[in-house]
Design brief:
Strand order of the largest sheet of chain A: 6-7-8-3-9-10
Helix content of chain A: 55-70%
CATH superfamily of the largest domain in chain B: ABC transporter type 1, transmembrane domain
CATH architecture of the domain at 349-599 in chain A: 3-Layer(aba) Sandwich
Shape of chain A: elongated
Number of domains of chain B: 3
Shape of chain B: elongated
Number of strands of chain B: 12
CATH topology of the domain at 349-599 in chain A: Rossmann fold
CATH architecture of the largest domain in chain B: Up-down Bundle
Distance between the termini of chain A: 74 Å
Distance between the termini of chain B: 78 Å
Helix content of chain B: 55-70%
Radius of gyration of chain B: 37 Å
Oligomer: heterodimer
Largest sheet of chain B: 6 strands, mixed
CATH class of the domain at 349-599 in chain A: Alpha Beta
Number of strands of chain A: 10
Strand content of chain A: 5-15%
CATH topology of the largest domain in chain B: ABC transporter transmembrane region fold
Strand content of chain B: 5-15%
CATH class of the largest domain in chain B: Mainly Alpha
Strand order of the largest sheet of chain B: 6-9-10-3-11-12
Structural class of chain B: alpha/beta
Chain lengths: 600, 595
């Protein structure tokens, strides 16, 4: 219930509107019950008039438009239409207030969770699958919305409508009321059971559905093997087994669903039947009129939906709350990598770029093994460093620590002599130009992608950055040039073009430190040489850290680190390392051979 | 205009083709329609019975008669209840039956298609065809059509009973129908546009969220959290406003329907009241009409909704039949030659191959022979065309020029089953399925006994580790065999190839992904498997093929060097020699890193 209290805080902003909506809905239901009352009155008055003036009414025109009876009929019908119109208007106003507010609250919650997601440290994204995180900001919010929308509206509706109708029924005849209401609790219980069953079974069916998809995936992706062993018939049988299981499960749900409407119908029909039976007996005893029977029949049909929705509402509420709890967990997630208040003030001196690692060890959250072990080194400002080593050796983990995507588990890192944790985070990240291993561009224009990290980048700056990254010519070849859209709705860039765009994005910031995480892998050697040449001029005073598998990329670096299993096992210049005849020189010779082979 | 006609023609073809799957259930469907008719009658007869109750018994103080009519009402109610349940279930049942056979047909068709079809279509798309596209037909097939017919029956019966009681009141009470029709159409058209917008907005929102979760590191590195938040608020606002717009239409439409229904009641009371005063209409009739007016509205609303269901179902069935109509490109000959005893001689004669007629040449003039019992090794850099040789040999693709012969017979003259049964294949990706180890080895072939499996796995020394697993051969593998090591997976694939006792063994990079501890085990297994068989081995590890009778060195689609290891290694500047040196370096590195 604590989480419900938290959830209800989002209501505060719209308290006025919501109260108004509740009022509208109450009003609507108030007018609604006048419809059967008016019909009963009319019928009763007609009955009385008919008994008073037997045989006097023989012209339809006369009856409708000039007689006393006509007056009564017209008056009552007019009242009826007026009531109905008011009811309609109020219902409109209800939806416009209650449901519209629920969309606004949804908007608020969604903004809040997105804001939080954007600030959460990388640790969170490593701990949770992106599918889960995605669900939090999309489906879960939509489900919570149902609490503020349908759940709230139906609850108010059921309470007020049932309240009015039952009161009115009791005034007319308590005994008949009891009879008429007899089947309704069953209706509510039944709706609750059915909607619960449907929810539960839909999950089961969803699972079976994924099994079918999984089976198809398994078969289609191993099609060569299956064909080679002539096993298509067997696979067909296995698929049909899953397919049949799906059908069976679906039919179980269908069975319950096919009970739903008929049972609803039966219970309502029973209520009407009881009204006519017991009401009929009462009419015969002179306790009530036929008008009352008509009135009760309408009451019962008005109660159907609110009563049935009660069961359904309870289920929805449960689902909404479950989703809310998941969202609340995200909102409560600690953000451990952030500015401490005392260091938050902006300092505007340039970063020189000296980097010191002091006995740094690092473990990924949830992992038992260290990805980096006791690493210490000093990179002088303005120098260039290359990091090589096999996949999984810890190269990326190492560079991720510099812009504080993760914090080291042990040890300290200093930039320009100042502990990394004392740097203003925004400023630190502004000074680090990072080109990640997996090039990620946003589906917007090339211009916006390159100018991603700078406020209001001028066109000439963007062009210059593109030029330095050797991607300018490619961009100018596109029809819309820098306005070309990238990604799903735009063009697909080649791997090399993507990498070079990402390089342009990193260097346009004029960073004090640049990090290239295997960022030239999809670029051919000639272009690579051109880029490196440009960067050497452009980044002469910038500390450069370059991860690569290619000797050609790294051989001119001031220092080369060879990393293995999270430790630096060799370091030095290209020449020094070759002399050592260790890992690095092996790698070098292997690449030479590969080159020769490629040239054959 | 002509476009409309054309699409209607397409629709009718689609419906006819769907009917083919529906055919086995047609008597059930007929039965369902009869039930629908009964339910429609029983549902609409009740107000008529209340009229009789009021006019003939209550008004005349006839208690026995009232009880009698109440029993009748009860029976109608119970009858409708039962008929509705049976009817709904039957329609769902045969609907699921149709979906079941459609789904299986699509799966069967896809499986039977040539391998190139799988290259051209992403697997995700093929899965969609077998799952969600079929699912989209569910609504139409399970209750769409039958409900539509039921709605029509209901309207018909209501009109019938109303007219029977009073034609004047009938006309008065359906006076509002034109308004109902008009507002329904207005609503449908407005809401469709609004819903399209909502769908766009949802897609925008979702893809924004998706993209920003995937690119979160970039956002944080480039200090874009605030900007991202601002952008999101804009998209989120668009999403909110699109919803609010549809709420507007709904909040007009639903109250309007209620108002119209009540208006019809008011008209009935007004005009009926006057007629009642004239003794031309009874109170019972008034009561019945009040109920009919409410009953009338549901089927009309229902009918207008079914149209949309039909539309989306047709779109899906078009895609489904698109797959079912795909022609097969690797076609079996009609009168295949049967090779009873395969000896295992393979010949390639001047084989040329490209995937598409305008595509790159993958193989150029490849000729070689592998004699029964020989070990033929194929080496070369990635993309040299090694795997293509195997693809062609198994007829995953057909060659454009040249000939491939098995025991002197063109493989195109053999049935696919006959051809493929002669080979035992171990692929590089170690394809394992979820299921028991036994199933993974026999691939469900009931002719292979457990003893044969054990024997085969003893031969390749897989038995030792399998017997240690809980449940031994009945140990259930998770998807892709994730619970086993690479080497263990490899050995299972070996056993799989062995139990079929093939004449020709094909190992495609079979030893490349094995760690060095199991490598020895694996190469011992390899040697044992090759005994008495023609073997074609594609390998990165040259150490495993030193003993080959013949080595083909492929380079850019051509055979550049052939001969046994000893001959090739002596050729200075040769490709094989370079590859060998490269390998040696890598192995040196390996031993260094494990040491």
């Amino acid at each position: 219930m604590d989480s419900l209290k938290k959830l209800n805080q989002y209501l505060k902003k719209y308290k006025g509107t919501l109260l108004l909506g509740a009022l509208f809905l109450t009003g609507a239901n108030f007018f609604l019950i006048w419809i059967p009352v008016l019909i009963r009155q009319t019928m009763d008055e007609v009955e009385l008039l008919g008994e008073e003036y037997v045989g006097e009414y023989d012209s339809l025109f006369y009856v409708l438009f000039s007689s006393e009876a006509g007056g009564i009929l017209a008056y009552n019908s007019f009242l009826l239409i007026g009531t109905v119109a008011l009811y309609g208007v109020l219902l409109f106003a209800t939806r416009q207030t209650l449901i519209v507010s629920s969309r606004k609250i949804e908007f608020d919650i969604r903004n809040k969770i997105m804001d939080k997601l954007l600030k959460l440290p990388q640790r969170y994204f490593a701990e949770n699958t992106s599918g889960e995180i995605y669900t939090r900001a999309t489906e879960d919010v939509a489900r919570v919305r149902e609490y503020f929308g349908p759940v709230l509206m139906y609850t108010i509706n059921t309470i007020t409508r049932a309240g009015f109708i039952i009161t009115m029924m009791l005034i007319v005849n308590p005994q008949l009321t009891l009879w008429a209401l007899l089947p309704l609790p069953f209706l509510s219980a039944f709706a609750y059971w059915v909607s619960g069953f449907i929810n539960k079974y839909q999950l089961i069916i969803q699972k079976q559905y994924s099994r079918i998809a999984g089976k198809a995936q398994e078969t289609f992706s191993s099609i060569r093997l299956i064909k080679a062993f002539n096993r298509t018939d067997y696979e067909q049988k296995r698929f049909e087994l899953e397919s049949d299981e799906y059908r069976k499960k679906k039919l179980k749900l269908d069975l319950v669903e096919s009970l739903f409407h008929p049972t609803l119908n039966l219970l309502i029909g029973t209520a009407i039947l009881i009204v006519i039976w017991q009401g009929g007996l009462m009419v015969m005893e002179g306790l009530i009129t036929i008008g009352n029977i008509a009135e009760f029949v309408i009451y019962v049909s008005y109660l159907t939906w609110p009563v049935a929705s009660l069961g359904y509402t309870v289920n929805r509420l449960q689902k909404s709350l479950a989703s809310w709890e998941r969202i609340d967990n995200v909102l409560n997630e600690p953000v451990e990598i952030r500015d401490e208040d005392e260091f938050a003030e902006e300092v505007f001196e340039d970063v020189k770029g000296e980097i010191i690692f002091d006995k740094v060890s690092f473990k990924y959250p949830g992992s038992t093994e260290f990805a980096l072990k006791d690493i210490s080194f000093t990179i002088p400002a303005g120098s260039s460093v290359a990091i090589v080593g096999r996949t999984g050796a810890g190269k990326t983990s190492l560079v991720n620590l510099i812009p504080r995507l993760f914090d080291p588990t042990e040890g300290e890192i200093f930039i320009d002599g100042k502990n990394l944790k004392e740097w203003n985070l925004t400023r630190l990240r502004r000074s680090v130009g990072y080109v990640p291993q997996e090039t990620f561009l946003f589906s917007t224009t090339i211009k916006e992608n390159i100018g991603f990290g700078v406020e209001e980048a001028s066109m000439s700056e963007i062009e210059q950055a593109a030029e330095n990254a050797q991607v300018l010519d490619n961009i100018l070849d596109f029809e819309k040039k820098f306005e070309t859209l990238v990604g799903e709705r735009g063009i697909t860039l080649s791997g090399g073009q993507k990498q070079r765009t990402a390089i342009a994005r990193a260097i346009i910031k004029n960073p004090g430190i640049v990090i290239f995480d295997d960022s030239l892998s999809a670029v051919d050697t000639k272009t690579e040489a051109a880029i490196l040449e440009h960067l050497r001029v452009k980044l002469a005073n910038t500390t450069t850290i370059m991860i690569s598998h290619r000797i050609s990329t790294v051989k001119n670096a001031d220092t080369i680190f060879y990393i293995q299993n999270g430790s630096i096992v060799e370091y030095g210049t290209h020449k020094e390392l070759l002399k050592k005849e260790g890992h690095y020189s092996d790698m070098y010779h292997k690449q030479l051979l590969e080159q020769e082979l490629a040239q054959i | 205009m002509s476009k409309n006609q054309k699409s209607e023609a397409v629709d009718s073809v689609l419906i006819r083709r769907l009917y083919y799957f529906f055919e086995p259930y047609k008597w059930w469907a007929l039965f369902a329609i009869v039930l629908t008719l009964t339910a429609a009658f029983l549902g609409t007869v009740r107000p008529k019975l209340t009229q009789i109750a009021v006019d003939d018994y209550i008004a005349l103080n006839d208690i026995d008669g009232l009880i009698w009519i109440i029993i009748l009402l009860g029976l109608a109610l119970a009858g409708e209840f039962l008929v509705l349940i049976v009817n709904t279930y039957i329609t769902r049942w045969f609907g699921q039956g149709v979906l079941f056979s459609l789904r299986n047909a699509v799966f069967e068709k896809i499986q039977s298609l040539h391998v190139q079809f799988f290259d051209r279509n992403p697997i995700g798309r093929l899965i969609t065809r077998t799952t969600s596209d079929i699912e989209a037909l569910s609504e139409l097939l399970s209750d769409g059509i039958v409900n539509m017919i039921g709605d029509l029956f209901r309207i018909f019966f209501i009109l019938y009973f109303m007219l029977m009681m009073s034609w004047e009141l009938t006309i008065v009470s359906i006076l509002v129908l034109p308004f109902l029709f008009y507002s329904t159409f207005w609503f449908k058209s407005k809401v469709r546009v609004a819903f399209l917008n909502v769908r766009d907005q949802i897609a925008r929102l979702n893809s924004f969220v998706q993209e920003h979760i995937n690119g979160i590191a970039i956002i944080q590195l480039f200090n874009r959290e605030e900007k991202g938040k601002e952008q999101f608020e804009k998209i989120n606002a668009g999403h909110r406003d699109a919803h609010i717009k549809t709420i507007f239409y709904f909040s007009i439409f639903w109250p309007l329907v209620e108002v119209l229904a009540s208006l019809a009641m008011a008209l009935v009371v007004w005009y009926g009241g006057a007629r009642a005063l004239m003794d031309q209409v009874t109170f019972g009739v008034l009561l019945a009409f009040i109920q009919y007016v409410r009953q009338f509205f549901n089927p009309i609303r229902g009918l207008s909704e079914k149209y949309n269901t039909l539309q989306s179902a047709l779109a899906s069935s078009e895609r489904i039949f698109g797959v079912l109509d795909t022609p097969k490109e690797v076609v079996e000959t009609e009168n295949p030659v049967e090779l009873k005893k395969v000896t295992g001689k393979i010949e390639f004669k001047n084989v040329n191959f490209r995937y598409n007629s305008d595509g790159e040449q993958i193989l150029r003039n490849v000729s070689f022979t592998a004699n029964p019992g020989e070990l033929l090794a194929v080496v070369g850099a990635t993309g040299a065309g090694k795997t293509t040789l195997i693809n062609l040999l198994l007829r995953y693709y057909d060659i454009q020029q040249g000939e491939i012969l098995l025991d002197g017979t063109d493989i195109k003259k053999l049935s696919l089953e006959n051809l493929r049964n002669s080979f035992g294949l171990v692929l590089q990706d170690n394809a394992l399925f979820s299921g028991t180890i036994l199933d993974n080895i026999t691939l469900g072939n009931k002719d292979i006994t457990r003893e044969q499996v054990v024997e085969a796995s003893q031969q390749v020394e897989a038995h030792q580790f399998i017997k240690k697993l809980p449940g031994t051969y009945d140990f259930r593998l998770r998807e892709r065999g994730a619970s086993l090591s690479m080497g263990q997976r490899q050995l299972i694939c070996f056993v799989r190839a062995m139990v079929y006792d093939p004449k020709i063994l094909i190992l495609d990079e079979a030893t490349s992904s094995v760690d060095s501890e199991t490598e020895e085990l694996v190469s011992r297994a390899c040697e044992r498997m090759m005994q008495g068989r023609t073997s074609i081995v594609i390998a990165h590890r040259l150490s495993t093929i030193k003993g080959a009778d013949n080595i083909l060195v492929m380079h850019k689609g051509e055979i550049r060097e052939t001969g046994p290891h000893k001959k090739l290694i002596r050729k200075t500047g040769g490709i094989y020699r370079k590859l060998y040196e490269l390998q040696y370096k890598e192995q040196a590195l390996d031993t260094a890193s494990t040491a």
